[in-house]
Every structure is written in structure tokens, then in C-alpha cells.
């Protein structure tokens, strides 16, 4: 299989991160620097930064309630307070996507690179739900316009669903992961986000998990999550006009 997939399946990193490590020369195969796209097998001696890649580790998937001020990266180059340092998990795991530094709420961490890729791939249309608090109450016309799509980052956002409107706060469910997407969507209409909290990723809910704490996914949660990850390319329209799996 391709080297990036091999590293992903062995819990080293996601495929994207593997490609970055390959470009940096951090990966060798049988003692020689590896290039992107190279095919490998279990009979090859594969090392990452000089450390041999062993057998696939036991799968780990945890849910974490991220506080504000924590940076969602596994990079040691970032001198800020990173999510990996904060959790200090005894095994090697990495975050599935990001929440920006000011935002709080649910983020998953795992050593399963394939799951990471499946969740993050935008074409899979996986839902993420947030609670947003603005600097002032959003008008009904802006709410409707936001649900239909907003031009940001040289593209139009997908239709989304806004519910539970209550004063300055509302829930929003999106199926994309554009950079600072919700903040940019609100800024387009002249609003500033005061608080942004993610409360759901696909079937995994934040629930009453306390800020700064983590938990393992239950067997049922993990089963449903993997089922959702396996359903790719079957997009349909809901009655609200939102494209979903």
C-alpha cells in the first residue's frame, strides 16, 4: 500500500501529516529516504525520524472538552499551550481537525489515521453542531441568508441549519470545515462571535463532559461513528435543503 496510508493505519499520523513528514525527509524505507506515493509492505523496514514503525497499536478514540486558549495541534514547533500537552495522554494520539484557540467544546483525538481522514474529508458531508453567541441578536433575514450559503474564502458555504434561536445565541449545524468558517459567516453580515462552542461531531455529543476533561467513546458510539465514516459519496437533500450523508 502507499506509504502515507501505511503510516496512517499504524497510528503514526493522518495521511496529510504523513505527506508533510515525507516532504520533510522524516521517513525512510529500508534505510533510504521515502518519497510520496511509494508502495510499501510489512516486509519493509519503515522508520519515522529514525524510529521503526511496529505493529498496529490498539485503537484509541477519545472525546475531549477543549477549553479556550488551547491550540489544537500535535506539532512540537508550536510554543503555545497545545492540546497534546494539555491532555498528556500516555499513548500517541492526535486531534481530529481543529477548534480555533478561542473556541471551546468537543474535539475527538485518536491514533486511527484512517478514521481521521474519513471524518475530515469534506466530500463526506459529516455534521458538526455548534452553539454560537453573537454581539447582538441576529435578524430573521440574516438567519435565512446564512442557512442558504455565505460567500467566504472565495467560495460559497454549503447550506446549513440554524435552530434554537434565543436572543443573541443559536445552534448551527454545518457539513464543512473551512478555516474559521462560522466566525467568517457571521462577520460577513456584520456580527462578531462572542462565544463559539462545538457540541456535536456526527453522532458524538459533548453532553455533560466537563471543560478540560476527556472520556473514551462507548462501544456503541464507536460502532455508529465507524458506520457513518464508511458511508461515502451518498449525498442527499434533506427537507431543509441541507446536503448530508
Write the layout of secondary structure elements.
Layout: H1 3-9, H2 15-23, E1 27-29, E2 32-33, E3 46-48, E4 51-52, E5 61-66, H3 83-87, E6 94-95, E7 104-110, H4 113-120, E8 128-134, H5 140-148, E9 151-152, E10 155-156, E11 161-166, E12 169-174, H6 181-188, E13 193-201, E14 204-205, E15 214-216, H7 219-230, E16 236-237, E17 243-244
Parallel strand pairs: 7-13
Antiparallel strand pairs: 1-2, 1-3, 3-4, 5-7, 5-15, 6-7, 8-12, 8-13, 9-10, 11-12, 13-14, 16-17
How would you sum up this structure, described in words?
The chain is an alpha+beta fold. 24% of the residues lie in helices and 27% in strands. The protein is built from seven helices and 17 strands. The radius of gyration is 19 Å and the shape is elongated. The two termini are 28 Å apart.
